[in-house]
Write a structure and sequence with these properties.
Elements: E1 8-12, H1 17-28, E2 39-42, H2 47-53, E3 62-65, E4 68-71, H3 73-83, H4 95-109, H5 111-120, H6 124-140, H7 146-152, H8 154-176, H9 191-211, H10 225-238, H11 261-274, H12 304-308
Parallel strand pairs: 1-2
Antiparallel strand pairs: 1-3, 3-4
Helix pairs in contact: 1-3, 1-10, 4-10, 5-8, 5-9, 6-7, 6-8, 9-11, 10-11
């Protein structure tokens, strides 16, 4: 895999934690949204639509680099290290360092489930903080009736949207099975259980970052793929998922880092690097992908996104 001028397309949907990770990784290599180095193509949010367009496991992101199809944010990071060996590395060059980053990356990827729960199953306020503006944009864009419907019953629309998305998320958890299936059945009234578990993991990660001489999870000189995995999760909770403005996202859990100062500092560092230059608004209008994407040609690792098995995500 040598550097080439081959066309590059990122298949994505807005709000995905793993898409945020991939976009940040490309930025570290000098590839920015809107600078012509690659283009974005929108795929459907619903699994049914993605099954028609993306190869199994039908998750985002997927990158086309010329004739190569690269599924999953971790495979994309690995490819970027091969393409740009002289730019900041996403995985250390030595095998021990690479294994450490990979293990931390996979550990943080499992936070996908608590991330989703505390966004979609934590009550109306968390849902509206995160995506009320996106719902407003979607409803208002319906010809003839959308604007009128929103003007007459915005709270009802948001309530119905929250119920539908929460139900879909819970079904996804149950379908996943294993230790994360239980997130489908923890009632919102018992959300403290998930909050406490998440806080315990965040505090453990906070201790790792606080002990790191570089301020990054695996003591790397620049952000690694593990740091970027965490960044994608935190953008949803305390950032704007790289979409600010009246039609963008908001923070689902703005207080979640209050007891983890090292993580807060790390997030602010990463957000300072990426929030402006990687804003999805820089793509302009993101056209929909209409043709099926061919099967993967470059996937040396099973994808973190596949490990999360995101059948439904925002």
């Amino acid at each position: 895999h040598k550097m080439s001028d081959a066309p590059k397309e990122l298949y994505m949907f807005r709000g995905s934690q793993f898409v945020i990770k991939a976009i940040a990784a490309m930025a570290l290599k000098g590839m920015l949204p809107g600078d012509g180095s690659y283009v974005a193509r929108e795929v459907p949010l619903a699994l049914k639509g993605r099954k028609k367009l993306l190869p199994p496991p039908h998750t985002v992101p997927v990158l086309r680099w010329g004739n190569d199809i690269i599924p999953g944010s971790d495979n994309i990071c690995l490819l970027l290290d091969e393409k740009f060996p002289d730019k900041p590395r996403l995985y250390p060059a030595d095998e021990a360092g690479k294994a450490e980053v990979r293990a931390m990356e996979d550990r943080i990827s499992t936070m996908y489930w608590s991330n989703g729960y505390l966004t979609f199953c934590d009550g109306q306020e968390a849902f509206e903080r995160y995506t009320a503006r996106r719902v407003h944009e979607a409803i208002s864009g319906i010809p003839l009736i959308g604007g009128l419907a929103w003007s007459l019953a915005p709270k009802l629309i948001l309530k119905k949207a929250a119920q539908a998305i929460e139900s879909g998320w819970r079904d996804t958890c149950r379908a996943k099975g294993g230790p994360f299936a239980r997130y489908g059945d923890v009632p919102t009234a018992n959300r403290q259980v998930v909050w406490d578990e998440t806080q315990a993991e965040l505090k453990a990660l906070d201790a790792v970052v606080a002990a790191s001489p570089t301020g990054y999870l695996c003591r790397t000189p620049t952000p690694s793929a593990a740091d970027l995995t965490l960044y994608g999760m935190l953008e949803r909770w305390v950032g704007d998922s790289l979409m600010d403005g009246p039609e963008g996202f908001g923070p689902a859990q703005p207080l979640i880092l209050d007891d983890t100062p090292a993580l807060r500092k790390l997030f602010e560092d990463l957000r300072g690097r990426f929030a402006k230059d990687c804003s999805l608004h820089r793509f302009g209008t993101i056209p929909p992908q209409k043709q099926p994407v061919p099967p993967p040609t470059y996937a040396p690792w099973s994808s973190s996104a596949a490990a999360a098995a995101a059948a439904f995500s925002l």
